[in-house]
Amino acid sequence: MSSNGFDRVLIAAGVEVPYRRQPTHGSTGELLAQAFGLLLAQSGFSAKDIDGLGVASFTLGPDHAIDLAWRLGLSPRWCMDDCHGGASGINLLQHAVRAIQHGDANVIALVSGDQFQASDFTHLVENYNLTTRTWLRPLQNGGPNSVFAMLTQRHAKRHGLTRADYGAMCVAQREWAAMNPNAVYRAPMSIDDYLAAPLVADPLGRFDCVPVVNGANAILLTRDDLAHNATNVRVRALKCLYNADHQAGDGLETSLKHVAADLWRQAGIGPEDIDLASVYDDYPVMTIAQLCDLGFAPDGDIRALIRRIASHALPVNTSGGQLSVGQAGAAGGMHGLVEAITQLQGKAGERQVDNAKLAVVSGYGMVEYRFGMCANAVVLERT
């Protein structure tokens, strides 16, 4: 086994069913099946080759991964449900790599996505977990917007940032989205547009809050000797840490702070070597927090980091991120992975990062009552 421990496994494809603001006809299961079909078409595999299936979804219920496998005509040797929200994509990836390495499966499809009716989203927000249902719903707190508004206030005060600083990142991501035909929101947005947007929960305005959409993503992993494509992607390093502070911290640091050194050591590179980053971006403040935790502001100069992002000197969330593409429920945990895979395979079209060879992707999510409990990151390389 190679020194980084991820040999013999390739990521052959990553796809996205274009996100839509309004629900389409059909069920979440049909949406995931559409992603599965696109995955087969891009990877060159057939359904009979797939012997592993992982699923992340909030609205697939009462069905589970095994029900979806049956509907897709699969007889998997490895099957996994995941419910880790923004961390689900990398969590599934970690388990799928190990399953292939240890012979539990040879070709694994990972699918994620949701289709929300208005009542579905309301039910999810009000019953996200027992804590939310018991303590927050009676307060009519409005869901995560109010929680992350307080966190943004704390972050801005600590680092001396203004709304315009956070807005510079939103504008930069909209510039990337303008080059992504699958992005839901592509219209040009200036910093004045950002600042003029209605406040949702001070200091968060409309463009700070991730828009809810419907869609799905999927990636395919295979044993390396079975791959059909000339250009594939390999995991170079992967680290996860969940519930690091038991909700006793201030939320301005994620678990990535504790695993970053090991991540870069395992990868054999540093943040300065990365060609692009896909960071889970439900709110701009969390994009900054994750990048800082990963070491992209080693001198603590957050404004310099923001300038690099705004100028595209550091390509961050090159799809437009969820803030412009939208958050399709659990698909949000895989969206950044699919974008990184697309970039590393040279398939990103107008937004393609020149000579992209190395990417870092982070996941974040599963708010208990103050902030996310889960954070993970993976370094990917083009083969």
UniProtKB/TrEMBL annotation:
<dbReference type="InterPro" id="IPR002155">
    <property type="entry name" value="Thiolase"/>
</dbReference>
<protein>
    <submittedName>
        <fullName>Thiolase family protein</fullName>
    </submittedName>
</protein>
<dbReference type="InterPro" id="IPR055140">
    <property type="entry name" value="Thiolase_C_2"/>
</dbReference>
<feature type="domain" description="Thiolase C-terminal">
    <location>
        <begin position="246"/>
        <end position="367"/>
    </location>
</feature>
<dbReference type="InterPro" id="IPR016039">
    <property type="entry name" value="Thiolase-like"/>
</dbReference>
<dbReference type="GO" id="GO:0003988">
    <property type="term" value="F:acetyl-CoA C-acyltransferase activity"/>
</dbReference>
<dbReference type="Pfam" id="PF22691">
    <property type="entry name" value="Thiolase_C_1"/>
</dbReference>
